[in-house]
Amino acid sequence: MSCASVDNRLSIEKSDAGRRGLCCKNPLRAKANVPANLRRKSPPRLPELSEFDVVRHFTRLSRLNFSVDTHFYPLGSCTMKYNPRFNEEAAALEGFAALHPLAHDNCAQGTLELIHDLSARLCELCGLDAITLQPAAGAHGEFTGLLLAKAYFEAKGETRTEIVCPDSAHGTNPATASMMGFNTVNIASQPDGRLNVEELKKHIGPKTAVLMLTVPNTVGIFESNIEAIAKAVHEAGALLYMDGANFNALIGMVKPGDLGVDMMHLNFHKTFSTPHGGGGPGAGAIVCRKHLAPFLPVPLVQKDGGKYLSDFGDGRSIGKVKAFFGNTGVLVKAYAYMLAHSAKEFGEIAVCSIINANYVAALLKDMYPSYSKEYCMHECVLTPGPDMLAKGLKTLDVAKGLLDLGFHAPTIYFPLIVHEAIMIEPTETESRETLDEFVAAMKAVHDEGIADPQKLKDAPHTMPVKRLDEVQAARQPNLHW
Ligand SMILES: *Cc1c(COP(=O)(O)O)cnc(C)c1O
User: Closest residue (by CA) to atom 4 of ligand 1?
Assistant: First the structure.
């Protein structure tokens, strides 16, 4: 791209009085419908541009973005894998897309059957008994899970006020606990991010409601003590919550229910190939054991003979956490993905996610040592090597340098327990060629950084914006033109 072709003006700055696109009379815009006092006194200040100007402007902007469809996206803990287009076709089928949310059960048998079957399959994969598909995201699932715990202990006449979270937990875990009015008890994890069972026992007791455990943990390591952890938690009368956001590393290989987990959430936009959105329509199902089932949000779907019915429970439900059955379109997409794979293939998905992460870690080990000394699961946590650190180069510099080479940055500075963390999740859908290209880019960033540290500290050099003051950008966003 030559510099002359880069035009970073806003559309309003490109405005030229009198320019416009094709215009036709819109019969729906009958002025008479808008009361006089609500009508504009003067026309809105909009850019005046030709249709072609607008198309070029927005197409150019769209190409400045990194996206899964254009770039490898190694964002650790986020599972930015490929979402099959077939999912979209299934969700757009008229019978699903055009169904009115208030339709009577008799007119919604297909959707109810889908919800019923999806629920059964997810329970089977998790080794648990019951499920709600209502929550709209992972964190919303956590919130729902803690509501279930609260209702469960209330019904037993117990007052338990504490949620225990290891310091390696995903930030949403303690955030959810405090939002729910619980006290969060923080436990230091071992250097590998695992929980020490003896240390755990010191922090749990009659006040403990729930231990929230991320599996695999945020260092990308399987919580191999989980059965002993579950036993200790249950002996204290508490519940074990598994943050299963990264279930793509376990699916088809491990059933969390078999390990002693009482409930867990699933992130459909991570494991089940539905789109990530800016918090947008999503699903973060909660799957649980029988003893928590009566408290699940309603309605659920029951099968009665050949018919599917909305089930509003026996009055013990925590109520609703989302309208109707949740974001049903997303459920259709996840169901399409599920039907496209056999049980054996799910195990292969997990294996591929693990092999890909270990492949990247192994090829980069001399320049970016792994934080953990053992094999990782679906993601690896690396750090800049001693030669980079000695030159004052940091993880942020690596992330910015990658942008110039056409790669979205990995997750950085998370997990918090790892100094200068670079968390890479290649996901199961990337080819070996793409991983090789990424490894070559990481090595190029290293070599260029060692050769000319200041240049890497000034990266990115090819992006429309350079380094932002991220704190100020978040606190005082400039949304003004
Ligand atoms: C992504 C993630 C979450 C939060 O999920 P959202 O759908 O973004 O709310 C929670 N825990 C872990 C471990 C995650 O990776």
Answer: 138
For ligand 1, the distance from its centroid to the CA atom of residue 113, given in whole angstroms, is: 28
Please tell me whether the overall predicted TM-score, pTM, comes out greater than 0.85 for this model.
Answer: yes
254 and 310 housed in the same domain: yes
CATH number of the domain at 402, please: 3.90.1150.10
> What's the CA gap between 134 and 286, in Å, rounded?
8
Q: What does the CA dihedral 122, 126, 132, 134 come to, rounded to 10 degrees?
A: -70
At 71 the three-state DSSP class reads coil
In contact, 83 and 275? CB cutoff 8 Å: yes
Task: Locate the ligand 1 atom nearest the alpha carbon of residue 139 and give its number.
Answer: 9
CA 140 to ligand 1 center in whole angstroms? 9
Per-residue confidence (pLDDT) for residue 193, from 0 to 100: 83
Other CB atoms closer than 10 Å to residue 132's CB: what's the count? 29
d(CA 323, CA 223): 35
Residues 333 and 357 in one domain: no
Spacing, Cα 175 to ligand 1 middle (Å): 12
**Total of domains in the chain:** 3
Residue 100 belongs to some domain of the structure: yes
pLDDT digits (tens, 9 = 90+) for 103-144: 999 999 999 999 999 999 999 999 999 999 999 999 999 999
Domain region containing 209 = 85-339
pLDDT interval class at 207 (50, 70, 90): very high
Q: Are residues 323 and 374 in the same domain?
A: no
For 410, the token pair is 């990995």
Distance CA 272, CA 248 (A): 8
* H helix or E strand, kind and range, residue 263: strand 263-266
Q: Compute the average pLDDT of residues 238-264.
A: 97
Question: Per-residue confidence at 66, pLDDT binned at 50, 70, 90?
Answer: confident
